[in-house]
Amino acid sequence: MKLDTSHSLKSKIPEAYHSYVTQNIDKIPSSKKGTSKDQTKQDPNSLKSRSSQKEFAIASMMAKSLRESLSPTMSEICESYVSGRLIAKFRNLTSLEDGQTGRRPMTLSKHGHLLNGFEFNSEHPYEQIFGANYFIKSGSRKGQVILHFPSFIPENTFARPEGATNFKIKARLVALSDFSFDINEDAYVAKNKDLHGKFGDFETAMLPLLKIPLEPMTAMIGIDYPEGIPEETACFLVMAISFYKYEKGKFNHLSKKSGMTIKRVY
């Protein structure tokens, strides 16, 4: 027998209830569980959570921008959980600024130097692998770095992994823009969008790990940006030592035994 539900269908269902359809009965009012959408928006804990998520999102984007600016072989050096560590470092930078959580700026040009020495492979730190003395100097304009490596003997310089026969020195200078929160956009916006993620790089030839001294090397890394690097930008100098094993006619990258670090932020 079909129940007469004409009265219930015409009745207005209270806001705190919803209806569902079942066999032989068109609609039955049922109490909603949890808080409403409007209540969630006004809840202090939810507001705090959403604000923290915004700062986490900008920190994640910064970490991704830096990693995607690295060369493929440099990326191979990164340990599996490096993204989380790098995000945490960027996330901490917003706490150094005044303002409301979720709207505090990401000012890398001011605080980026706090990432100096960040290791992408903590089991094989760059500074422990590479024992040679070398010099880093700023160029004539922002976005230029000069590297000078005096003569050194590779076999006496590196803490090389077992089986390594060759090495490369690699460097990449990456520009990352400052970000501020735009109230109208309700989002973080780059101060220098066109420059963000641009880079210049340097890489040696494949060099043998021998007792023979190498000739001195000097190189300049520059980010090509005709307008000049503006002040609201930080330049991250990432340096790496990659070891290789030559066998069966090819060089195999010993990526997990190589090292890479954020050497300096300008």
Characterize the structure shown.
The protein is an alpha+beta fold. The chain has one domain (44-265). Helix content is 25%, strand content 31%. It is built from 8 helices and 13 strands. It has helices spanning 6-10, 37-42, 44-68, 72-77, 82-94, 108-111, 126-129, 154-157, and strands at 17-22, 25-31, 135-138, 144-149, 166-177, 179-182, 187-190, 199-203, 207-208, 217-222, 233-247, 250-253, 259-265. Strands 5, 8, 9, 11, 12 and 13 form a 6-stranded antiparallel β-sheet that branches. Strands 3-4-10 form a 3-stranded antiparallel β-sheet, with no helix packed on it. Helix 3 (44-68) crosses helix 5. The chain starts with 5 loop residues before the first helix and ends with a strand. The model is unreliable at 1-10 and 25-31 (pLDDT under 50).
Keywords:
25% helix, alpha+beta, 266 residues, disordered N terminus, 8 helices, three-stranded antiparallel sheet, six-stranded antiparallel sheet
Rg measurement, Å: 28 Å
List segments where confidence is low: pLDDT < 50 over at least 5 consecutive residues: 1-10, 25-31
Q: What can be said about the biggest beta sheet? A: 6 strands, antiparallel
Cα shape:
elongated
Number of helices: 8
Secondary structure: helix percent: 25-40%
* DSSP, total strands: 13
Order of helices and strands: HEEHHHHHHEEHEEEEEEEEE
Average pLDDT number: 87
Quaternary state, please? Answer: single chain
Distance between the termini: 80 Å
